[in-house]
Amino acid sequence: MSGFDLVRREAFSPQTTTTNDDQRRVNAAMASHKYAIGRMVEFVPNDLRLSPLGRFEIVRALPIEHGIAQYRIKSLKDGHQRVAMESDLA
Question: pTM for the whole thing?
Answer without folding.
Answer: 0.62
